Amino acid sequence: MAWSVGRSAPEQFQEFEVSRIYCPNCRAAMPVRKRLVLVLLDREIHHYVCAACGASLGRKEELPAASGRLILA
Fold it and tell me: What percent of the chain is modeled with pLDDT above 70?
């Protein structure tokens, strides 16, 4: 099997965006919402929350946006 379309195999799967995660409360794979919890200088921490019951189902750490601006609200 050759990887000839666009990018090589390792580059295609650098980051995943989750759309559904198994929720033990709902007992099914449920849609999730990604909520920003904490912003640090070197990373951002997001929690995945069940769209139906609000249970926390996981977390993801990412590099911060490359805008270079700090926005205070």
Answer: 70
Helices (H) and strands (E) in the chain, counts: 1, 4
Q: Are 22 and 28 in contact (CB under 8 A)?
A: yes
CA gap 11, 33 in Å, rounded = 26
Domain segments of the chain as ranges: 32-64
Assess whether pLDDT exceeds 90 at residue 21.
yes
- Rounded CA-CA distance 54/51 in Å is 6
Range with lowest mean pLDDT among 10-14, 16-20, 34-38: 10-14
Using alpha carbons, list the distances in angstroms from residue 20 to 2, 34, 65, 68: 30, 11, 24, 31
Angstrom distance (rounded) from CA 29 to CA 51: 11
pLDDT at 16: 80
